[in-house]
UniProtKB/TrEMBL annotation:
<protein>
    <submittedName>
        <fullName>Uncharacterized protein</fullName>
    </submittedName>
</protein>
<feature type="compositionally biased region" description="Low complexity">
    <location>
        <begin position="155"/>
        <end position="168"/>
    </location>
</feature>
<feature type="compositionally biased region" description="Polar residues">
    <location>
        <begin position="176"/>
        <end position="185"/>
    </location>
</feature>
<feature type="compositionally biased region" description="Low complexity">
    <location>
        <begin position="133"/>
        <end position="142"/>
    </location>
</feature>
<feature type="region of interest" description="Disordered">
    <location>
        <begin position="84"/>
        <end position="185"/>
    </location>
</feature>
Length: 291
């Protein structure tokens, strides 16, 4: 491996382990260990995705079985309905209605009821009398206009309630999805509003004498980041230190340039599992350095 022609930073490990003759092998083993850790993380994530897909397939099969059961029940209900209708038709055909001959007592009752209805109609006031007693609106056009306005107002109220329900559904996220950390332009073309998206980077193989302040100063001088945060990680190495650097999403490309750090410095994306960004010293974290 060819060396780079620039001065090493203060936090770079200038002192090496006693095995000077095996420096190249040690570096390759360190890199291999970190790559194995990354591969283990990717395998774990793929296994979780596979489990979720399996559960989704099981859920789909369950829904299909439920739909088939519902179709079977609907068919049974239709068959029972058809059987009940056929039974009713058989009963009606077996018991035909009987006709009463004219001149019986029922006929006399019908004739008396008709006479009473005629007398009631004669005693009821006519349409002209009802108009005189309740003339209603003086102008028919005004009356129709009021009815039309009342119907229009009812439709407007119904449309307003539908729009209000739609806006409430949108506010609760039922009809539209919002991206976390999304930013939209403001009136000024050079400014944005919203939550800034952060990008976390793992920096490994630093000297034991290095600290958070030195690395922050180096990053600011080298890449001129607009926003940067640094956190020291717990490692198992006796010769090196590791850090987690958080920068803006738009500035993540600066730190991956070959000119960012010395040749032996290791820089990659900071891996997280299950959305948990807290490193627990009791667990085997994916970002604990094995340098």
């Amino acid at each position: 491996m060819e060396g780079k022609n620039f001065l090493l930073p203060d936090f770079y490990a200038k002192s090496l382990p006693p095995q000077i003759g095996f420096l190249g092998i040690a570096i390759m083993m360190c890199i291999l260990g970190e790559e194995l850790t990354s591969l283990r993380t990717e395998l774990q994530l793929s296994q979780e995705v596979r489990e979720k897909q399996t559960k989704a397939i099981e859920y789909v099969n369950t829904v299909k079985n439920d739909i088939s059961d519902i179709k079977t029940l609907i068919g049974q209900i239709k068959n029972e309905k058809n059987e009940n209708n056929s039974v009713k038709e058989d009963i009606a055909s077996a018991n035909p209605p009987t006709e009463t001959p004219p001149g019986t007592a029922d006929g006399d009752e019908d004739s008396s009821s008709i006479t009473n209805d005629v007398n009631d109609n004669l005693a009821r006031p006519s349409y002209r009398d009802r108009l005189l007693s309740n003339p209603g609106p003086s102008n028919n056009s005004n009356h129709y206009k009021q009815q039309r306005e009342r119907h229009i107002n009812q439709h407007r109220q119904g449309n307003a309630s539908q729009q209000q329900n739609q806006s409430q559904r949108n506010e609760h996220g039922r009809r539209q999805t919002t991206l976390i950390g999304s930013r939209v332009p403001t009136n000024d073309a050079n400014e944005f509003s919203g939550v800034r998206v952060k990008f976390e980077i793992y920096v490994g193989r630093c000297a034991l004498t290095s600290n958070r302040e030195n690395l922050l100063q180096y990053c600011k001088d080298r890449c001129r980041f607009s926003e940067i945060e640094c956190e020291e990680l717990k490692t198992r190495s006796d010769y090196y230190k590791s850090f987690k650097v958080t920068v803006n999403e738009l500035d993540k490309g600066k730190i991956f340039y070959p000119e960012f750090g010395p040749e032996n410095m290791y820089v990659r994306k900071f891996y997280t599992s299950n959305g948990n960004r807290n490193i627990d010293s009791n667990t085997d974290s994916n970002n604990l350095s094995t340098d």
